[in-house]
Design brief:
With 241 residues, this protein is an alpha/beta fold. It contains 5 helices and 12 strands. The strands form 2 sheets. Strands 1-2-4-3-7-8-9-12-11-10 form a 10-stranded mixed beta sheet, with helices on both faces. Strands 5-6 form a two-stranded antiparallel ribbon.
């Protein structure tokens, strides 16, 4: 079982925290690296229980990053609860700077496989994964994004394998909005007709080997527990070429 370690970085004179899960057994191969971004109002301690991907990808280092109080137009206009920056220069780019610092220091401490760096995010965290995709897309091998949309100026999403998780009864991030984004990803990744590979799970092969997988459930704005195992399997299947 991975061992969680709390680490602190100082970014622009502000202390930032992340919970890092290091595999308890190492086979001397480079570590895959997974970044996890929780939803608005959450904390890393909750996130490590809600998204326990280290149980399904035990060879990987998993980093749960903690955000700061941030306004959210949909649910927290005053910014009383934790959230991620929405735009490239929002909040003085504090979360992009935080990500850069964590990636740099982790790479200096551990032997990371550059072809197996992944990002997972739900809701507000999924929005930040879109921002990372647009601003740091050259780093990642694949993404898992749940119940989320990007901000209008997220940047260019270079074709990359992605698992999109959406609830048909999501009353916060409407399913029809998410479907439009999925359609955009299918187009940009040059995907072909989809085929079912499991219950509610559809794989869209890609002519450029950048597939899109969707898991469309009947729930609302939730992260289905089964999504963690799906995300781990998806990441394992798609390292960088």
């Amino acid at each position: 079982m991975a061992t969680p370690i709390s680490q602190v970085w100082t970014i622009d004179n502000v202390k930032r925290e992340a919970l890092i899960c290091i595999p308890s057994v190492h086979n001397h191969n480079p570590y895959p690296l997974i970044f996890v971004f929780h939803s608005h109002g959450d904390y890393v301690q909750q996130a490590s229980q809600t998204y326990p991907i280290y149980k399904y990808y035990p060879e990987a280092i998993v980093i749960y990053m903690q955000c700061l109080p941030t306004p959210n137009k949909l649910i927290d206009a005053q910014g009383l609860h934790t959230g991620w920056q929405a735009h490239p220069k929002d909040q003085n780019s504090r979360d992009l700077k935080f990500f850069d610092a964590v990636l740099l220091s982790t790479g200096s401490q551990y032997h990371i496989d550059p072809k197996r760096i992944y990002a997972l995010g739900h809701s507000d965290g999924g929005m930040f994964v879109y921002l990372l995709w647009g601003q740091r897309g050259q780093i990642f091998a694949a993404y898992s994004i749940s119940e989320a949309l990007p901000s209008p100026d997220y940047g260019f999403l270079q074709p990359t394998p992605v698992l999109c998780i959406a609830g048909r009864n999501d009353n916060l991030v409407k399913f029809e909005w998410q479907q439009l984004m999925i359609d955009k990803l299918l187009d940009s990744n040059h995907c072909l007709a989809g085929h079912l590979v499991g219950g509610n799970l559809t794989l869209y092969d890609s002519s450029i080997n950048m597939p899109v997988m969707t898991y469309i459930h009947l729930g609302g704005h939730i992260y289905p527990p089964e999504s963690i195992a799906l995300s781990a399997s998806f990441f394992k299947a798609y390292p960088k070429p």
